[in-house]
Amino acid sequence: MRKISLGRRTARLAAVSLAVLLAGTGCASDKSTAKTGSAGADTSGDTVKVGVLHSLSGTMAISEVTVKNSVLLAIDEINAKGGVLGKKIQPVVEDGASDWPTFAEKAQKLISNDKVAVTFGGWTSASRKAMLPVFEKNKQLLFYPVQYEGLESSPYIFYTGATTNQQIVPGLDYLKAQGKKKIFLVGSDYVFPRTANKIIKKYAEANGMQIVGEEYTPLGHTEYSTVINKVADAKPDAVFNTLNGDSNVAFFKQLRGTGIKAADMPVLSVSIAEEEVRGIGADYLAGQPVAWNYYQTTEGPRNTEFVAAYKAKYGADKVTSDPMEAGYNSVYLWKAAVEKANSFKPDDVKKACDGVSIDAPEGKVTIDGATQHVYKTARIGVVQPDGLIKEVWASPGPIKPDPYLKEYPWAQGL
Amino acid sequence: MRRLREAADAVASAAVRWRGPVVFVAVALLLLVAAPAALSPFRLELLAKYLCFAIAALGIGLAWGKGGMLTLGQGVFFGLGGYAMAMHLKLAEAGPGQLPDFMVWSGVETLPAVWEPFRQPWFALLMVVVLPGVTAFLLGLLVFGRRVRGAYFAILTQALAAAFVIWLVGQQGLTGGTNGLTNFTSFFGLDLADENDQRVLYSVVAVVLGLLYLAFRQVVASRFGRLLVAVRDGEDRVRFLGYDPALVKTVAFTLSAISAGIAGALFVPVVGIISPALLGVVPSLEFVFAVAVGGRYTLAGAVLGAVLLNYGKTTFSEHYANGWLYLQGTLFIAVMAYAPKGVIGVAGQVRDFVAARRGRAAPAVVPPARVEEGAAA
Amino acid sequence: MNAFLNQLPIGLSIGAVLLLVALGLTFTFGQMGVVNMAHGEFLMAGAYTAYMLQSWAGRQAVLVALPVAFFVAGLMGLVLERTLIRRFYGRPLDTLLLTWGVSLILQQVARDLFGAPNVQVKAPTWLVGGAEWSGIRMPYARMFILALAVVCVVAIWFYLARTKQGRRMQAVMQNRELAACSGIATSRVDQRTFFIGSGLAGVAGVGLTLIGPVGPALGTYYIVDAFLVVVAGGLGQLRGAVLAAFVLGLLNSYVEYWSDASLAKVVVFAVIIGFLQIRPQGLFVLRSRKLT
User: Fold this and answer.
1) Beta strand A238-242 pairing with A182-188
2) How far is CA C35 from CA A161, B56, B250, C212, C226, in A?
3) Quick check: is A31 in a domain?
4) Which of residues 253-272 of B touch A (CB under 8 A)?
5) Could you tell me if A283 and A257 lie in one domain?
6) Does C212 contact A227 at a Cβ distance shorter than 8 Å?
7) If residue A380 lies in a helix (H) or strand (E), which one and from where to where?
8) C106 Cα to chain B: minimum distance (Å)
9) The domain spanning residue A218 has which CATH number?
10) Is the ipTM above a cut-off of 0.85?
11) Cys staple from B84: which of A150, A263, B77, B127, with CB 3.0 to 4.6 Å?
């Protein structure tokens, strides 16, 4: 009996070592390429690899898959027209799995194993913060396509979504112009809503508006009756909504139960685009305002083209939204910057990027070299019963990005 | 002739006796010498991450495999250790009198008092062990003292993980909220961007794993270890014999929490992030899942499972992102239904099966709760 | 005082949601000792049933779906019981992990069948909006869920206390061996229990479409809370579950009113952990002389 148990123990240890060996040999295959140096894109052939890093599984997949689709669409279009600097773009798609450390891991993999020239990816602030050190450490570029909370300007990240002064501040300007004085803030408990609300409070102070309540709920929260009760008791003129993801569905469904109408107390949302409207139901959202830089209905020949191309590739029932458009723009902006620099090297691209401009579906977008953000037009839209969003107000022209709100006197001391 | 056979027997029994240590040394050499030489820095960093999970798995092997306590809240202890370490690294980086970066954008103007002592490296290192240990000890005393056990205990620890994550996320100024703590550049003098220093860090992780493995093996082989197994298999009987099962369980639970805390603390410099997303209900279940796959009844199985599963996850997700959940689910069902002793027990199961086929009296598939493992680890 | 009255119906309606999602579990967990982590996915199955039925029932799909979802989720539960859980009786911890594997697969199946984004379930027009009496608000959808919970509880009570099958179920719950000795086919009773328990999850899922998102992750939002209700109420105790659900609902609504949602959740968890120190077996305990 004793011998048998010893035999088993040995078998176990042998299994461990075998597994480690297997893992070792499995990994060793990429050793030759990866050992040569930490980073540096391989552009020797007639293709250039780029990384596409979004959550294809997990809770964020809902949103991020659409951005991945539009990035791939842009790559296809560019390849059909001859590529970048005579090289075809070869996308390497990785899954961030809605998990921030995975984003960091996959970013490192794209850089050191696949030798990509640039990476397009990320959605949540947390995923960006997790990837940031990886790109800075390796001195490689990331294009990040989603509106975010500002107060950041990494030398190796290009921010192609809106920063606060291109979305939140215009949203507030709109509410002010509508004569809304008492505002209630509702948000998910994470960095974007908290930072956004800090800005909103400063703005309100300077503009004679009053914040009558501020509520945060955990991510994925689905029980809103108490929050709605508080909103109804405070009787605000408008609600500024920074809830994220599934919570929006619960919030709007339950808000409807109180009989409060969009006409009396609009809820301005900054995280609900065409794709999210479909999940919540236009029923519950019709008449509510949202703030973005682009809608599927934005007018212009370039957008008509984009919407048609997207539907042709992914299905006629698909919609296009702001983050998708920003992802699509990212690829074109990168291409334009590379061509201006006549080089794929991150530092050359960074040097050349200032003033690079493309004709995007949302209109003209230009890179601001100092902050590596882009000039964008702010647009307020209203959700229509058919689920699309109709623009009701737009800034006179593209707004200069100002992630630290330096040019807004009321925002000092943020 | 007889002498020859005696000599052969002696050699054979020596081989049997020494095979365990030999294999351990072989694995150690493989991890410490072969792996750093053969793997690219990127893969080595991943291996270091798997080994961190393996450290946490050791504790689960002890608490669940040996003690029968299904703890679905290991993420909490992993997080306590991880945050203790991350707080120190953030402060060391910010420099004296300065605030960590995330506090600046969260609008915190003075350093919270709980952060202050973490400036001292010795305090942070102490807390890596003390925070999870004391939390688990107190919780264990309360819970086991009231004879909460089995599924109740599992659900309770799961609720604890859920509550912990919600609390962490809510305290953005204190904990970095959903983002967690990221962006570390150095670890006790090691430059985390430097390849050689990364290799050193990897070795530290591997050595810690080896030492903890040996220590836990000692625990399992000791009188306490046998008592723990006895509690698992018949808690009331142990009580009738005059022992206090609650204390035994509490100690084992505390040890498992400490190993999770150490794992979390090492995870921080290796991966460069600690965030609530790593600690909640699902990651805590995944810790346990890895141990189940490897083989919960042995410490080696727990370690093997953590390495294999995380390796599989990385490799698989590089190719088929969507298939991973199917594979994970199926694997889980298969392991629970057909190989309750995990990968490491499969060889034994096959042997038993073959023996049964031959008609020899061999134990059929024993219900796992009654498996007698003795001191084998 | 006004706030106190205001939060009362809210607490009750939160309690009703908790009760509805936990009701099925009191059976499968309480009677059979099966910790079914896939219970959340049965909720999801119910919600998707309502979604599918919209194509021909239109806005009344929610009503039509109630009985259909009961059968759909019940059948799923039955299949799960017959194929897998049957092998695991007496090993509750293993069923916990096993059913978690099942829940992962079911989530991914839903993602592949219906897509990752949330889908829309339109509520009947008569359930949109709400009533208000002097500042106390009660949405119709909430009243509907409250009514649904009451109906389910009454139906179950009737089944348990007044039917032959129900009494057999109780017998098995109280002492399986003795029940088997008295000629009750316990395995048949187990199947029936699992069918009903899972079916109730389906019904709950239909109710949830009125107030929350309908997507592959639906189950994960409710599963932990549901287990806590059962644990706090006591295994297999209908009145325990009812009382626990409403107490937790009220607690949640008042704590959240005076603080915030995150804190309310943490407080509720803390209260349950504390409560189990005082009564480790939950509110109500099944009296028996069994040792373990």
Assistant:
1) parallel
2) 45, 24, 24, 25, 11
3) no
4) 271-272
5) yes
6) no
7) strand A379-383
8) 9
9) 3.40.50.2300
10) yes
11) B127
